[in-house]
């Protein structure tokens, strides 16, 4: 076994806040400098249908999003019932899903298919935690965003955290298929591959 099975593809979406702020190139360069290879790249305005597939309404996902939000509210001494009218994690997750869909369809995004060794995990490390307030300096979210979950929820807006990165290899496959046709993903070799693989 030569380790080729550890080479993965993942999806990164530079959200409307990245595009409108003009930081696309800076963010893409972070991935390239880490040795990751761009296999597909395009600017696209997602349809509502694509966004609804992208942020799928799986009950586990809704509950997970809701539970994370409730936990963060408790950490900050806030009452989710006061902000959301409920403390049901699935209902809170559903509200946040609606905000995500509204935001990602509000203007063009830049979608990127990246490839590299343990690419999913590597990209998640470079991007940093979901909440910019908790993202350390040096990560993309830590350097280019700063708001908290509580601030976003008070304002009834999605958490503006600059970039989406697939959480798992399975998620990456599903998300890539929503945005890219197979012929839009390119296999090629770079002359630096002998030193990065």
From TrEMBL:
Its cofactor is Mg(2+). The keyword Transferase applies. Its EC number is 2.7.4.6. Gene3D superfamilies: Nucleoside diphosphate kinase-like domain. Keywords: Kinase, Phosphoprotein, Transferase. Residues 7-187 form the Nucleoside diphosphate kinase-like domain. SUPFAM superfamilies: Nucleoside diphosphate kinase, NDK. It holds the Pfam family NDK. Belongs to the NDK family. It comes from the Archaea. One of its GO terms (molecular function) is nucleoside diphosphate kinase activity. This is nucleoside-diphosphate kinase.
């Amino acid at each position: 076994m030569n380790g080729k099975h550890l080479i993965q593809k993942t999806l990164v979406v530079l959200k409307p806040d990245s595009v409108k702020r003009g930081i696309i190139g800076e963010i893409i360069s972070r991935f390239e400098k880490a040795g990751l290879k761009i296999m597909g790249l395009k600017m696209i305005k997602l349809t509502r249908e694509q966004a609804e597939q992208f942020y799928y309404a799986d009950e586990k996902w809704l509950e997970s999003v809701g539970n994370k939000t409730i936990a963060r509210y408790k950490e900050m001494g806030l009452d989710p019932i006061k902000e959301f009218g409920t403390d049901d994690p699935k209902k809170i997750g559903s509200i946040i899903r609606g905000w995500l869909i509204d935001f990602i369809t509000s203007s063009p995004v830049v979608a990127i298919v990246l490839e590299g060794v343990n690419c999913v995990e590597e990209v998640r490390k470079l991007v940093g935690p979901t909440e910019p307030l908790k993202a350390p300096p040096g990560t993309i979210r830590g350097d280019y965003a700063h708001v908290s979950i509580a601030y976003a929820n008070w304002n009834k807006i999605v958490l503006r955290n600059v970039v989406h990165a697939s959480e798992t290899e399975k998620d990456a496959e599903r998300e890539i298929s929503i945005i890219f046709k197979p012929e839009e993903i390119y296999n090629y070799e770079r002359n630096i591959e002998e030193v990065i693989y």
